[in-house]
Amino acid sequence: MTKIAQLPYKSHLYGIVTQKKIIRLCSTYAFIFFSATLTLWLTNAAQWHTFSLGLMLPGAGFLVYTDLVSWQGLLHMIFAAASMCLFLASLILWFATGNVIAPLFVWLLSAIIAACMGHQAFPSGVICGGISIYTHWLIPTAILIAFGLAFGFHVFRQVIGKRQRLQANEYLQNTAQEIADKFEKTRPAEPKEFSLDDLKLMRFLLDRALQPIDSFDGFEWIDQFQTAAVRYQLNFLGYALSMAQATHLSAFGGYLDDAQRNLITKQTDNRIWRYWRLENLWGNFRLSADPIARDNIMYTGFCATQIAMFHAASGGDFFLHKNSFLLTDASNNRYSHNLESLVKKLDSEFNRSDYHLMACEPNWVYPLCNTIGAAAMKFHDANLWLQHQENFTHLLEHEFIDYSGRLIPCRSNYTGIAFPNIGGALPQALPCFFQNATMPDIALRQWMLLRRSLIKNGTLNRKEFWPIDTGNYGFSRAAAYAGVAVAAAELGDNEIAELCLKSLESEHPTIEINDSTHRPKASVWAHALEFLARSCIKNGFRHIIENAHKPRLHPIISEVSYPDVLVAHASYQEGVLKAVFYNGTQAGLQKIGIANLTPHVSYFCESTANKLVIADAEGNAVIDIFVDGRTEIQVYAAKQEQY
Amino acid sequence: MACCILISIIFSVVVAAKAWLIGKPSNQAIQWRPQNKRN
């Protein structure tokens, strides 16, 4: 029985690191505000008045010349409103791409332009319906009132928050513990088998993964900065195939190994990571294009985990080799990496960060991305992870979890400001999946807290599932259902996982083309999430990460023709290689390669055309099998004597 | 005038970045199926 962890005591709304950053930000603004106020009161020059107001608030400089009785006055009002809108847009750009220059640029430029407009006279005040309002009193006073209200709201949130935390802990101790105890029995003892429907969805992934490395047909090219970026499609296709291999196909290499390796190698294509040159320039003021050199856990950490899962599931070590993850930019600069160097970068960046969590876009720290990166570190070097675990966990708990126990999506490393908690259940659920590998007690606690809002009267609370697919920004709940199902499956909550997958099917029914299925409107990323959910079993991800670099020495299915033969199951237990195939095209006789056999030993093959095969000097053999619908084979040594 | 300049600058930057970063837009990505067998 796993005892659910409690939320730690939290005395303030913000953790110590965030508090310091917010105090620094407020102090900087206070300095600008009071300097501008003094300038406003002590000088008579119209330009300085305008500039001072423009420094206090984006676009406020234009308000000096605003009135409602002349077209010039109205035009200034429009300028002020447009400047504020532009400032908001620049904040979005800052959040979306790490462009820290944009908000400062818009703010300062609007102040300068308002000051340089060359008006001859400074008006006594804004004329509004015959009443003259003095802007040099009005704007500073309004700002002070706004700050006062914000502080009041802060105190209110703190009082309410403490109560929410007590309620959450009470729920965790009683109701949640009873529900979680039922999860314990859900991990199957036997390796699982895919249904034909699962295999048709798997083809959606394999078709994209098995095309030539430099081809990206079937991927969604929308933008490379945010959640629809192709790198995330590659990541999650890889995660899903690795999970499938670990849980259902542990004795199958062949095209499944090729597909995972291809997806990782596709990440090295310059089109995938060249966004970083821009982000590094406008966020870090650096010219380097190397996406691994600094920040960017959304590339470094995600790719490291993709490699870790591939190595764990396939038993290989391909991406430990020198130059195995080689990035070449448009100017032919080469950045040579492998799993080792990616994890080293995670190590140094964790240490460099005030939050002990690494930034994604320059200066924006996402806890989800960091839990993904942490899993790769644990897989590659468990001792190294142990050195980080305490700080990482402490700062995650105190800086990135609010009073009610919800994970804060991201926080600015420069200012301490957090992005609002939007997105419904998905951004809360996905971290539970990844955290289960490195901090399972927190993962279970977070899942149980989220679960409260997911079910109402035995059915899914649809409101919690956002109707926007973050994989393509389209209107669909597919990603939300699939993503929550992923976390539910990992945590062993089969009830939620099944409800999510049922809702996915009823709201976005599959369409079959050429024996492969897809869901209209769902993103490629959502399809990957769905297959990840279908492949995952309780603690599936945790077992993968804890299964560090174990070479696959037992007999495996090594060569199968794709898409002629689909593999639904492959395992090796107690001396027997068991596999289940379906025909992906027409039924017919197929050649199946087997590897890792004992050289020169004869093997008995049930359900095959050639009942007895002899392994060659390298331990390989090829058998012929007629695949028509579900076709099962078992291979085992006929006798121990050697030929 | 000022806003026109600001909007033009931001718009140009966004359009340039988009043109440079986006390879080929695809509305049919989900329906895509390979024409030939794997190489």
Brief characterization of the structure:
The complex is a heterodimer of chains A (about 650) and B (about 40). Chain A has helices at about 15-40, 45-55, 70-95, 100-115, 135-185, 195-210, 230-245, 255-265, 270-275, 275-285, 295-315, 340-350, 365-380, 380-400, 425-440, 440-455, 480-490, 495-505, 525-535, 540-545, and strands at about 125-130, 130-135, 325-330, 335, 365, 410, 455, 460, 470, 475, 510-515, 515-520, 555-560, 565-575, 575-585, 590-595, 600-605, 610-615, 620-625, 630-635. Chain A is an alpha+beta fold and about 650 residues long.
Q: In what range is the share of β-strand residues of chain B?
A: under 5%
Specify the helix fraction band of chain B. Answer: 40-55%
Envelope shape of chain A: elongated
Low-confidence region ranges of chain A: 128-132
Distance separating the two termini of chain B: 58 Å
Give the number of helices of chain B.
1
Largest beta sheet: strand ordering of chain A: 14-15-20-17-18
What would the average pLDDT of chain B be, to the nearest integer? 60
- Strand segment tally of chain A: 20
Tell me what you see in this structure.
Chain A contains 20 helices and 20 strands. Chain A starts with 15 loop residues before the first helix and ends in a 6-residue tail after the last strand. The longest helix of chain A has 49 residues, at 135-183. Chain A has 643 residues and is of the alpha+beta class. Helix content of chain A is 51%, strand content 13%. A 5-stranded antiparallel sheet of chain A has the order 14-15-20-17-18, with no helix packed on it. In chain A, helix 15 packs antiparallel against helix 16 (440-454). Chain B has one helix at 2-21. Chain B is built from 1 helix and no strands. Chain B is 51% helix and 0% strand. With 39 residues, chain B is mostly helical. The N and C termini of chain B lie far apart (58 Å). The A-B interface holds A 62, 78-79, 82-83, 86, 89-90, 93, 102, 106, 109-110, 113-114, 117, 207-208, 210-212, 216-225, 255, 271, 274-275, 278, 513-514, 516, 518-520, 522-524, 527, 562-563 and B 2-3, 5-7, 10, 14, 17-18, 21-26, 29-34, 37-39.
